[in-house]
Design a protein that fits this description.
- The protein is an alpha/beta fold.
- The protein has 2 domains: about 240 residues, Alkaline Phosphatase, subunit A (3-Layer(aba) Sandwich); about 140 residues, no CATH class.
- Helices cover about 35% and strands about 20% of the residues.
- It is built from 15 helices and 15 strands.
- Helix 3 runs parallel beside helix 15, helix 5 packs across helix 10 and helix 12 packs antiparallel against helix 13.
């Protein structure tokens, strides 16, 4: 038996007026996913434990079978592992976004124009982070380049306990009341302020402005954490596993769990990602692994930007360019596939929520009576509710 989890990050939503009071999952044309839903177990699952923040790291740990209350140590260290940062248990890391802030003179009066600096390219962002490291970094506080707008600050032998806000939670808002506080808060804020002076007239940004693009004119810290430790996935589930994702967070989880991380050319973490390439990579991985986790970031990014139509398109692309390719490639094989989001990213709030999400579990050798459409409403109508997200994988794998 081969196992595939197809995770559409942030795919769940609330009814949207522009969609006739339906959700993107209800409106999207997804014949292959809906065909599976008709012969699958469909229900809802709480991927974010009560009292914890609805973050992708917490939710994806749950889906992979790791209880976040036991294993969660912060987001940034998982990303740091992925980009090859070496650090010890006494160090602290912070996710470092390159963002676009408005141009008010006083830093606290600025607004969060874009948490991703217009989806800045990795090459451009690397130049900006190198400039920040040259001007503001040292042996204790060092900056490390990641992908696009996602980077890392490493602090050697440090205390943790900063009060930080993800930039995608405050899109369009004045940043004053969301600036760093708590342990290291004063230093972190000082670095953010100084980064604006370093970056505002950087050649990369002047060129972006000339081309009508948003400049990456400041850094923004969040996602504090320490070095993670997870049980080995193969030892835990007696299955060899692989991860396919464009984002460092998922790659980091996989590396710490001892899974193979598969790089796919053209995988961007956005709506223009190489969907078919991910599906083909998954089929190839299943020739040497029992389990593959395919993570697609696009619906989440569309949710954060409030792009209703693009969120629908991203779901349709998952259906046509990943699920269809998988089903065609696995014909004649015994396999199981689980499809779900990690959390909702509602268009109306442009950030994550902790509402339970729909899931389906299809088995090629076991048909059951399902529902007509894979959606939030139909999933809830079945009455199946998994309260502990980290245990859902046991049902999927029949462990």
């Amino acid at each position: 038996m081969k196992y595939v989890i197809m995770l559409g990050d942030g795919m769940a939503d609330l009814p949207i007026k522009e969609l006739g009071d339906k959700t993107p999952l209800e409106v999207a044309k997804k014949p292959h996913i809906d065909a599976l839903a008709r012969v699958s177990e469909v229900g809802i699952v709480r991927t974010v434990p009560e009292g914890m923040k609805p973050a992708s790291d917490i939710a994806n740990l749950s889906v992979l079978g790791y209880n976040p209350r036991e294993y969660y140590s912060g987001r940034s260290p998982l990303e740091a592992v992925s980009i090859g940062v070496e650090f010890s248990e006494s160090d602290v890391t912070y996710r470092t976004n390159i963002v676009t802030l408005s141009d008010e003179e006083n830093y606290a009066d600025k607004s969060m124009v874009d948490y991703s600096a217009g989806e800045i390219t990795t090459a451009e962002a690397r130049e900006l982070i190198l400039a920040v490291q040259e001007k503001l970094g040292d042996e204790i506080w060092s900056f490390h380049a990641g992908i696009s707008y996602r980077h890392c600050l490493l602090v050697k032998d440090a205390l943790d306990g900063a009060d930080l806000t993800p930039p995608h939670d405050i899109s369009g808002k004045k940043i004053g009341e969301y600036l760093p506080k708590g342990v290291n808060g004063e230093k972190l804020l000082d670095l953010m302020k100084k980064s604006y002076d370093v970056l505002k007239n950087h050649p990369v940004n002047l060129d972006r402005i000339k081309r009508g693009l948003r400049p990456g004119n400041s850094i923004w810290f969040w996602g504090e954490g320490r070095k993670p430790a997870l049980p080995n996935f193969k030892e835990k589930f007696s299955l060899s596993g692989a991860m396919i994702s464009a984002v460092d967070l998922l790659k980091g989880i996989a590396k710490v769990a001892g899974m193979e991380v598969i790089e796919v050319e053209g995988a961007t973490g956005n709506i223009d990602t190489n969907y078919i390439g991910k599906a083909k990579a998954a089929l190839d991985a299943l020739t040497r692994h029992d389990f593959v986790y395919i993570h697609v970031e696009a619906p989440d990014e569309c949710g954060h930007r409030g792009e209703c139509d693009n969120k629908v398109v991203s779901i349709e692309d998952i259906d046509e360019k990943i699920v269809k390719v998988l089903l065609d490639g696995l014909k004649g094989e015994e396999f199981s596939i689980m499809i779900l989001p990690d959390h909702p990213t509602p268009i109306s709030i442009k950030t994550h929520s902790s509402t339970p999400v729909p899931y389906l579990i299809y088995r090629s050798n076991e048909k059951v009576e399902g529902v007509p459409c894979f959606s939030e409403l139909y999933a809830e109508s079945t009455g199946i509710f998994e309260k502990h997200g980290d245990l859902l994988i046991n049902k999927f794998l029949k462990k």
